[in-house]
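User: Is it possible to get a 3D structure for a protein together with its bound compound? The compound here is FE2/S2 (inorganic) cluster. I've pasted both below.
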Amino acid sequence: MKNIIVVGNGMVGYKFCEKFVAQDGSKDFKITVFGEEPRPAYDRVHLSEFFENQDAKALEMAPAEWYADNGVELITGERVSDINRTEKTITTAKDREFSYDYLVMATGSSPFVPPIKGVEKEGVFVYRTIEDLEGMLAYAAKLKAEKPDAKAAVLGGGLLGLEAGKAVLDMGLEPHIVEFAPKLMPRQLDSRSSQVLKLKLESIGLNIHLSKATNQILGDKFITGMEFGEDDVLDVDMLIISAGIRPRDELAKACGLEVGVRGGIIVDNTMKTSDENIYAIGEIALYNQMIYGLVAPGYDMAEVAVQQIIGNTDNTMVDDIDMSTKLKLIGVDVASFGEPFMPASKGHSIIFENKTEYLYKRINVSLDGKSLLGGILVGDASDYNMLHQMYLNGMAIPENAAQLILPASDGASAFGDVTDLPDEAQVCSCESVTKGQICSAIENGEATDVAGVVACTKAGTGCGGCKPMVADLTNATLKSLGIEVKDSVCEHFDYNRQDLYKIIQVKGYTKFNEVLDNHGNGGHGCELCKPLVASLMATINADTANEEYAIQDSNDRFLANIQRNGTYSVVPRVPGGEITPDKLIALGEIAKKHDLYTKITGGVRIDLFGATLNQLPLIWKELISHGFESGHAYGKSLRTVKTCVGSTWCRYGMDESVSFGIELENRYRGIRAPHKIKGGVSGCIRECAEARGKDFGLIAVEGGWNLYVGGNGGATPRHAELLAEQIDNETVIKYLDRYLMFYMRTAKPLQRTAAWQERLEGGMDYLKEVIIEDKLGIAEDLEKEMETLVNRFECEWTQAINNPEMMKRFSHFVNSEEEDDNLVFVPMRDQKMPEPWN
Amino acid sequence: MEEILETYKSAELENVKVWFKAASVKDFPIDGGACVKYKDKQIAVFNFARLNKWYACQNVCPHKMEMVLSRGMIGDDKGIPKVACPLHKKTFSLENGENLNGDLEAIATYPVKIEGENVYIGFSE
Ligand SMILES: Cc1cc2nc3c(=O)[nH]c(=O)nc-3n(C[C@H](O)[C@H](O)[C@H](O)COP(=O)(O)OP(=O)(O)OC[C@H]3O[C@@H](n4cnc5c(N)ncnc54)[C@H](O)[C@@H]3O)c2cc1C
Ligand code: SF4
Ligand code: FES
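Assistant: Yes, that's possible. Here is the predicted structure of the complex:
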């Protein structure tokens, strides 16, 4: 039995263990891993996700049990402090000694902190470990409580600095990026693309300061600012340093291993250091005079070291290491691959730039025009995977190479198909998975879908950038095998939403079990297909959610929005946001009586929180007696039509936006759709009702209304697009009836109008042909169906409180009148809230 | 908060000591659930009519410790009968309480018997 000691339990140190225990010969070795951090190795590449969920477990490369189950001894929270190469032993900071036959150095890098005066002040952070992030979150929370407009800067405008900048923005602080070079991402981008990126980042609220050398950090105990020149000061309350990395070679130096002038342990292509029993891998290894700050080369190094130790000495590191990268910020696409800046002697560049849309694309093509040497994409990196593959595999490019980056005019792609890639093409560079491996996993039956491919090849489990390509390859391979790829709704049906719509309509089903028994796969349904079928039956049969309540989504079942602690919120309809003082008083009185937390919603209605199941009908009885009705805030249905005050009061108003908004809200209320629908009506182009951020929006103009459709706020904001101009009220209703009904018939489950419209083949032109010109000859049907829904409207809450059988639903216990005794509320700003989750 | 979970220990049919008469069959929705109070416990009871079976489990969801599982939707995952929590759609096997789409702790399950029109839940303590 030989002993292997791994120093450092980071991404690469872990990968070494994972690859080692998978080897046949691994039984003859015992691995011991030391990690200085308090927890087992985690995915540093996705560290920023910690800001969203603070879930350290979710980032783990493998749980602690994995090491034990695989015979690896993991010792966390203990730093290796000394290496004795003659005795072949190491000593730890706790003064324990261990002996080794092979030593693997995987100590990684630490952030480089430039020697600026004042960097030691409180509020200055680096961005590398979970503890760093916890520190930042706590500091930011403290800052915000004291100072609502607190600012934070990031020192360094590279790949990591920008990621940190986005984190600052998400923490709710005013973000500033300070870069020494005259451009952002100086290692990956040329000047023009970095200018475009700067504009884009500024448009989402990042402040960018270029060509700034920081002389000093200001402040007494805490940072209060950064000084660049005598009169050049930026006031900030927090700073994150992201100015590059330095290999952690202090141990190696102390025991006399050969290191590079600027740090890093020198290795050859077998990953051996100057001592033949010691290997170095990952961000500590200096290979070809370079430290590679990416995981993919680190994983390759781990593989080489494993093979060398096992005895497969032919397995060596490649010479050329691919440094292509894609920035992973939501909403900002940036990628560079191959040689992004190429001297004119080697080839020609083709550049496409459109600053109005923050787009820049550059490809570098060999002098003979046959191959791709590299490139840069800013604003739209959707073709990155394909271009990157073409570059890696030296694939032939089209005669007119410009097609690769010019916006496609006819929808046809210049790339051909994923299936054209050679089998050796490396699709997932983190896990070194080739196209051939992915396809054969499906061909020999190991995997039958994307999840299966990911599970058996590990493709897509690293940075995740290759996932779209893995999905395309999986679907293409399945198709080539004659296996149909269906977007079926769940395991219980082989149909998609549109198929089920037709089935239910034609057969006239009214019960879930009829649909399941006649068209299902023999199972019993689930939380995906039940609410879907419920929604379809409500649309097709013009029913309310009370029809078959056990198949309704929880909110629809109790006609209220379930909140964090299992209580509900109540939102009565206030059409167009118009409310009389008497009704407003009634809302206040009812909220007070039942001790409900009260807030005005984003859709300008009044939301009453904290109602228990038992309270719901009591509250609704009172609301209904004051003339209110259900607001359907809980349903996948029309929420509100937001209006501005329009020509009724406003001196700019061109039309009565409130009156029309109320009419529309009352028309479409209660209708069940694939997802929620919001509307807006503005009285003039000043757009105070933000109508273009809604699923449908109207703006009054000279000669009528402009009708916009498919807008969205939320996570992927999108402006609604113009469907028709200067039309009268009647035409608006006609087009909207058709549009909404067409959406309800054809969208996928839980697809908002924006996403549906974006994926509609033929785009806006096609939509206009269907809605306005009636190209499919269905306009009359659509209008009729909508008319039925409008005429059959009934308030679900009025139905419920008048039916004793339905009322039985609203009780926490079946065998007791008592309330849930587990509820705890705490006071907050003169109201109450549920006790926080821990 | 986690101490709530200590209150709920699965019972097997063999070691039931108390059969608690919970409510009448018609008090429960078909293919749905409702909550039963037994001493300081909240038990979710489901009438899985499609399988002609009844299931019972703790009402508290081990994800965020809220008393909500009885309001969840039931169905099956590749044949295993399950309930989906209404808050974040974590799903649990109704047969053995296992978390089917994550690695939360299993929930406690209890045997149910129907006698005449009445639903009984079995406890071992
Ligand atoms: C925010 C962020 C985003 C990133 N994004 C990307 C990306 O998109 N793509 C990409 O390819 N790369 C990215 N990286 C870089 C990537 O994380 C690193 O390349 C990778 O983590 C290197 O792995 P490693 O194991 O060599 O080093 P590390 O992960 O740093 O692990 C080294 C470990 O060794 C421990 N250690 C050091 N000395 C000792 C000692 N004496 N005794 C015991 N333990 C010791 C350290 O505490 C550390 O836990 C990102 C990095 C960060 C911080
Ligand atoms: S959108 Fe026009 S009409 Fe409406 S409130 Fe604003 S300025 Fe007035
Ligand atoms: S509380 Fe049940 S899934 Fe989150």
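Chain B has one helix and twelve strands. Residues 73 and 87 of chain B are 11 Å apart (CA to CA).
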